[in-house]
Each structure stands twice: as C-alpha cells, then as structure tokens.
Specification:
about 220 residues, seven-stranded antiparallel sheet, alpha+beta, 2 domains, elongated
C-alpha cells in the first residue's frame, strides 16, 4: 500500500530518518525519500507531496532512484541530462519531479527506482516544484541555443535531433501542466526552437550555395 505522503528535503539536521518516519529506514528503502502516513512536526518543515490515487491534469510524478553504495558519477550526470530534456525538475541528486512518469530513464541505469503520482501538499513543495521545473526548462533552452551555434559536422545532426525532441515536448498532452506551473517561461522554449530551425535552414542554404559554386567553377588545367 503506497504512503499517503512523501517527504523530502534537507534532513541532515534531523540526525536520522526516525524524526520523519518514526522509525529507522531499512536498507531496501531509498535513501532520500520518506513515505509516511502521518506528518510529524519535523516532516511538515520539509517538502511534502501528497500521494494521489487518481491521475488527473494536476498530477505530477515523483521519480527517485539510488545506486546502493555504488559510485555512479557518470550515471547521475546522464540521468540528469535525460530528465532535463523531459522537463523533469531536480529536487536533489536522485529525486526528480516530472510532468509524466519518466521512471524508464533511471531504470536504464539502476533497478532501485520508485515512482509515485503526487501533488505538492505544502507551499515549500509548490515553490520547489516550480523552481526545479523552470531550471530544467532554462537548461533545455540554453542547450537548444548552443546547438544552433554549432552547425558543423555532427553538430547538424545533434541540432536536428534536438529540434525533433522539442516537437515532441511542445506537442505533449502534459505540456499544459508545465505551462500552468511556470507561466510564460514556456515561450522561451518555443522561441529557442524557432531560432534553431532558422539556423538549420540557413546552414542548409549555405551548403547548397557552396555546392552550386563548386560545380560552377571551371576545371583547373
């Protein structure tokens, strides 16, 4: 049976999981996520998400994972990048808040993954969700603009791949949920996509013109 609430945040000052859970965590449980049926005083001061039974337009997905003692610096970095491209906000190194169930991303690296449908329960959680998702979106915008400035060789293939990914993002059913959360910031993504496509078109025209000029050149004797 899933917990009624999920609690996470800066817990170092609490000394142990007992302050939040009323018991110590077992070795099989994810380190940074606390599932509880009641909110203790210590828990109320952290980020609190309510676990929901029905998924609707206001439901988010809390995706958390662990590597259980294995050093996985590269894996954390790759997961973060994939999560950001999905507009999942990072709440900590191993926990993301996503507009859809993106648990398949960390599952490609570790079996220790948990996903729960949630809604922010307190103001701390609402603010943290908005900030985290906006930072992910800003990262996507930056990467999109950088791709448009590097249209040589493999850079062209990467730019086309990003343009295709953005088509999927902006056309997703859940994108309205993101727009409602962070408002007009989504327009920045649309503008970056338009600029990238313009740069790709200009790059293609330059390549065509260069080919025409090469063909038109008289042969050297």
């Amino acid at each position: 049976m899933p917990p009624r609430f999920v609690v996470l945040g800066w817990t170092r000052g609490l000394r142990s999981s007992r302050r939040v859970l009323g018991r110590y965590k077992g070795v099989w449980e994810l380190r940074d996520v606390f599932g509880v049926s009641r909110l203790s005083k210590a828990a109320r001061g952290l980020l609190v998400f309510e676990v929901v039974d029905r998924v609707d337009s206001g439901t988010w997905f809390l995706v958390s994972f662990d590597f259980k003692g294995v050093k996985a610096t590269r894996e954390y970095s790759e997961i973060k990048e994939s999560m950001f491209w999905s507009l999942c906000g990072r709440l900590d190194n191993s926990t993301y808040i996503c507009p859809y169930d993106a648990s398949d991303i960390p599952l490609a690296y570790t079996p220790y993954v948990e996903v729960l449908p949630v809604k922010p329960y307190n103001e701390r959680a609402r603010i943290a969700t908005a900030i985290a998702v906006k930072r992910a979106l800003e990262w996507v915008v930056t990467e999109t603009l950088k791709a448009g400035a590097k249209l040589r060789g493999r850079g062209v293939r990467r730019a086309r791949r990003i343009s295709s990914m953005l088509d999927g993002l902006l056309g997703a059913q859940w994108i309205q949920k993101v727009e409602k959360l962070i408002g007009g910031a989504l327009q920045e993504l649309s503008n970056a996509k338009s600029k990238l496509e313009e740069e790709l078109q200009n790059s293609s025209l330059r390549a065509q013109n260069a080919l025409i000029m090469a063909i038109a050149q008289p042969p050297k004797h």
